Amino acid sequence: MIDPEARYLRTHEWAKEEGKGIFAVGLSSYALEQLGDIVYLELSEKGDTVEQGGTFGVVESVKAASDLYAPLGGEIVEVNHAVSDNPDMLKEDPYEEGWLVKIKASNPSEFEDLMDAKEYKQFLETEAE
Amino acid sequence: MPYISHTDQQRAQMLAEIGLKPEDLFSDIPPSLRCRPLNLPEGLSEQEVRSRLAAIASKNYIHLTCFLGGGFYDHFIPAAVYALTSRSEFYTAYTPYQPEVSQGTLQAIYEFQSVICRLTEMEASNASLYDGGTALYEAMMMALRLTRRNKVLVDDSVNPIYRVMLHSYTRNLKIELTETENAGGLANREAIRRALDEQTAAVIVQNPNFFGCIDDFTDLAEAAHSKGALLIVSCYPISLGILKAPGAMGADIVTGEGQSLGLPMSFGGPYLGFMATRKEYVRQMPGRIVGQTTDAQGRRGFVLTLQAREQHIRRDKATSNICSNEALCALTALVYLCLLGKEGLRETAQLCADKASYAYQRLTAIPGVRPHFPAQWFFNEMVLDLPCEAAEAAAKLIERGYAAGFPLSRYYKGMNNSLLIAVTEKRTKQEIGMLAEELEAIL
Amino acid sequence: MKLVFEKSAAGRRGLRIPKSDVPTSIHLKKEYLRAQPAALPELSELDVVRHFTELSRRNYGVDTNFYPLGSCTMKYNPKVCERIASYPGFAHLHPLLPQLRGGGMLTQGALEVLYETDLMLREICGMAAFTMQPMAGAHGELTGIMMMAAYHRDRGNHKTTVLVPDSAHGTNPASAAIAGYTVKTVPSDEHGCMSLSALKAMLNEETAGIMLTCPNTLGLFNPHVKEICELVHSVDGLAYYDGANLNAIVGKVRPGDLGFDIVHVNLHKTFATPHGGGGPGAGPVGVVEKLVDYLPVSVVVKREDGTYALEYNRPKSIGYIAPFYGNFGVILRAYVYLLMLGREGLERVAENAVLNANYIKEKLKPYYDLPHPGICKHECVLSAARQVKESGTYALDIAKALIDAGFHPPTMYFPTIVKESLMIEPTECESRETLDAFIEAMIAIAQKARTEPETLKAAPVTTPVGRLDETKAARELNIACL
Known about the structure:
The structure holds 3 protein chains of 3 kinds. Chain A is an alpha+beta fold. Chain A is 22% helix and 36% strand. The longest helix of chain A is centred in the last third of the chain and has 12 residues, at 117-128. Chain A starts with 6 loop residues before the first strand and ends with a helix. The interface between B and C is large, with 210 and 202 residues.
């Protein structure tokens, strides 16, 4: 499942514009499937700043741990503690309730650098090869 | 040929069956990279090797009556310890990556983690680290990660070998490691409080400290916490039979050398580093951790858990590069503690303290022999000042059959006459009395 | 099975502690004492013996049966090594004795063992000197990288990066990172070896060195390894040899001859000391002449009069990486092993280890995918990709089914560059009969994957517990019985 509204990084993070230069950021359902059961999620704190491609947290399953990369640079203005307390929520609704952080972009045009849903779909097909 | 079972005929058959000639096996290596025949001796039979090694072993002076400590002690080891740990199902196994065939190792590690928590009064322990020194280094690195700060304070009453290890390991890192000078044999409160600031990640102390002095770090824990720093305590597990546990003082990370728990001194290793912490810090704790779980039928079992912190998954972002533990040594410590039990460990610790106290009385009765830190309490090790150079006195006592202690001048300036003397439960009243007589005789 | 704590009964004793023979009974200041004795279990000696005997029976070791765990070299651990390590002359020796005045003379036997082992390792690896101190392979890596840093500092080099191949053990990047370096990964080429062109593109003035396992974790010997070392030297970088797979080439190829500057060897792999369920091991590190000054304090030297001494005055040394002389008991076992084998025996090691790996590879080739055909060294890497496609049987299922057949599984899912990998390392010790029985079991499992894959999913059924819920373990995090 791919959210058509969102744009994507090759590392499977998505971003969606919420207005006023604020973007919600999460993990694609493909990434969540690959990870398996998530046992731990650590997110940066509100007020932290992050660059595009910088890390804003770690997601950990039994067999893997991955850094979370920011699709856009800026200030983290909100953190979804509900998902870090209960990572199962992520799989149920990865693109809405399962957002991880909200970033106030310092340069909103970075959004354009990301893959759109169609490009991401193609990317996933090449990944599966 | 020892330890190879193929006969020449079998080798030839095997090669023929897979369509290879003997020289094919290394045909992928360019001939120019092959080495000349090694210049090593001919192999020996078991009978020859045993007699040769028995002769080599006899050159080591193990019959000295041992009052040498310094963090490594001559304690009694019950026979059942070796009988159990030498079962080859334990010692010829690998890391328990396949839990269904490794429940022995895994449950033992879980029980080891539990006894370490109970001894130190902490919430979480790992499966062990290489030794007490590297455990202290790992604890320091853990505190730096947890606090995201770059300064560390260490009191000079911490084992000097461990302190020099901390300096060696941090040489290429951007870490400011400051030593405070002990105050009258205890960690220097005033200096530590003065140096503690918003960039301090941890304060490192030891109990009993290298001088054998006992301390209570409750006030230091509070001082560290008030600045957002952590308190790291290195400790001597046998002393925890009677002494207040670091957890009860408010320590955040506790480490120690586990050699005293049933491991022979073996000229420095293999030993056992242990580490315990608060549950909230467990994801930054290095090393293996075993957790309890169940199988599909609901049967209890144990697995390696939180592996995503470790090098085989996290590679350059792992909490540590450590890839093993000292599993067999951890098993040894667990068996030892189970044999002694709750009362046995308490009695052993009390016996050490009583004998050390007797040695103190006997030795300080010698004219000219005085305690270096008269105001302090000690557990089983003490610093005595002699009326002569301690290194000289120790050398003379070796000739009389006594490893009388460790001269402190090697690591502490101005302590040329100071001798660090350890007394374990193995030392008898007679041996202590003889040491006193011999010491008096050479002074 | 019950935990040892669940077998405890208040007041039961396992060991009688002797009565005090001294007149003193010290009452320490109350604030220094614990309120309650530590809550250790209370058991009789027989209780303890039964508990740990039962635990041992829930374990599988080399002495149980074939243990073809790739990359781990699970060879036989000779009993004579255990016996000698328990000689009181070694076991009861206090490590501080040599630091007493004239104390070196009290430990001549132990120093001789360290010195002689060092000499033999030098000859085997083509190095100028070894430190015996590192207590594991990963500890050796860190020691080696610290020496690399000291070398560059001394030469005024500004180096920031260590290169590792994508097939490397995780310890390589982790060791370089904790020593303060940035790690960059060099991809493998289609033959499974490090890509020379990628390496050339990544090498620059910031390269401190490279870490290589040779043969690599696919069991392949890179024929360009000498060229790689020369390329690294051309930017004044150092080449580090990870000795995890030395068993494949011991006596045939010396890392020093290939151009490596730093080598660690795993005594618990190539030199037959027991793995102990995950340690203790030992990871001595050897260096070429230009790095000898950086070896850790202390170093054992032989004096003109034939006696041995510890050298502490080493101004360029990286300092102390261990309190004393390493895991002496482990080093001693390896020394005994080397004496037993001798030159000729050591040469047979690699020959038979490589024969056994190729024998298994060729016999299983029809039944499993083999991503890198051709001669392998001491281990072969198969893939269960075919089984996944045909019946949804994963490498994990095959591994668990092997347990029911009485074998320890191979390493699975490593190296990660092969999908569904099964990495099989038989070692030189195993008999043809054992290898044939294992091959037969693997073939039977491949057939079952076609005909009744569900039985493989249920495996193992012969063990005290079945497959365990790792997610539950990580989420509930019960790691101590308090």
